[in-house]
Design a protein that fits this description.
137 residues, mainly alpha, two-stranded antiparallel sheet
């Protein structure tokens, strides 16, 4: 019997606690919405969730930099049609950034190097060789 009384007491306490929470919740909801009782709860459930705006893949600032880089890149490849790593034997199709391409360095022409696809792969696959030949800083 003692166990059943403890169980009933615990269940009773839980039910009482839930009623108190519900009462406070309804009171707060009524204050916020101006509705009464169960209507307030129904109104709250039917209320639409806030519309989430999707995250941008690229920030506005970076998108502007990319547009500018596209123009600068096309002009640079037009002015330097031959691979600078091959001593002018192959046609340049890519720009190698000798000092990375973060921030302002993305548009800094003094670190650009017009290279063919084969040389660009060789530079990135062999960084020690590229540093010895001045293709990486």
């Amino acid at each position: 019997m003692d166990k059943s009384r403890k169980t009933q007491t615990k269940a009773t306490r839980q039910a009482k606690f839930l009623r108190i929470i519900q009462k406070h919740f309804n009171a707060r909801l009524r204050r916020l919405t101006g509705l009464k009782g169960k209507l307030a709860i129904l109104e709250w459930k039917d209320e639409k969730a806030m519309k989430r705006t999707p995250l941008r893949k690229v920030s506005k600032k970076r998108a502007a930099q990319n547009r500018e880089y596209s123009r600068v890149r096309a002009k640079f490849l037009e002015d330097n049609p031959f691979c600078e790593a091959h001593d002018g034997y192959g046609l340049s199709t890519q720009i190698h950034h000798m000092n990375h391409r973060e921030g302002i360095r993305l548009l800094d022409r003094k670190y650009f190097l017009a290279v063919c696809d084969e040389c660009h792969r060789k530079i990135h696959n062999n960084p020690l060789w590229a540093r010895e030949h001045g293709l990486l800083i």
